[in-house]
Amino acid sequence: MTGWKIFSHSLGMVLRNLGWAVQIALVPVLIAVVCIAALLWTHVGELIASMGRQGYVPSGAFITSILLSVAIFIMAQLWVFVNWHRFVLLEEYPTSWFPTIHGDRMLAYFGTGLLLGFIMALAWIAGGIFSSVGSVLGSPVISLLILFIVMVGVGLLFFRLMPTLPAAAIGKTLSLRESWEATKGTAGTAVVLFIVLVGIQIVLQAVTNLSIYIFAPLGLVFALVSALIMTLVNVSILTTVYGHYVQGRSI
Q1: How many CB atoms lie within 10 A of CB 247?
Q2: pLDDT at 50
């Protein structure tokens, strides 16, 4: 049950270091929220006016604000993720509420993420072509089965290659081939981990919906807190996988 151990270890890592996690994530998140809100607030009138209008075409300024908001969101994530990886793997503790900006590591992390995204996209395209066999045969059951196999295959591919992300965050060179070799024989672990994450997400969503139904403000607070914790848990899973399979640490 290594998959469960990886999840429980990653969750414990966040809960044990919740104070440090808040110190690493709070300022980047607040800066991102304020900047994105300021960008989109100027277009509230346009959004309201567009409601119910057919053939509405957003203005160039609105599209620019959306793109800038996406860029700010990604930069905030990189800022948090890189510092969290370095905190866990290098014991690099934050010295203030304004986390260090490791520009070169953030850029390397972004580039590695783009490369992995490109590989995943190619895998999805290849899988989509393969799953069309079921459509040609006129069997939706075969199509669904092939689609499920493709989903599992893409997930396993990402699991085998994801240690390259923490490596980029801490400045270690780890090629795709080295990552692939280090995670050999982990198919069962990846599947169990995926099932656990999906199950946890379903439970959290159910609790969020129930909380919102009972008392909306409480539900929204729970949704935000659980989303932040699960984001850090997901990043911690990358860290744990790197530490266990590449560095040889015990779980």
Answers
A1: 13
A2: 64
Handedness of CA 204, 205, 211, 217 (dihedral sign): positive
d(CA 202, CA 210): 12
Instruction: For tokens 């656990």, name the residue.
Output: 196
Question: What are the residue boundaries of the structural domains of the chain, listed by start?
Answer: 2-246
Check: CB of residue 94 under 8 Å from CB of residue 23: yes
DSSP string, 224-248: HHHHHHHHHHHHHHHHHHIIIIIS-
Structural contact between residues 6 and 198, judged by C-beta atoms closer than 8 angstroms: no
Tokens encoding 64: 């620019």
232, 42 Cβ separation under 8 angstroms? no
Backbone angles phi, psi at 97, to 5 degrees: -80, -5
Per-residue tokens: 151: 């989903």
pLDDT at 15: 92
Q: For the chain (length 251 residues), average pLDDT per consecutive 10?
A: 91 93 94 90 70 68 87 96 96 94 96 96 84 66 78 91 97 95 93 91 88 80 84 94 93 83
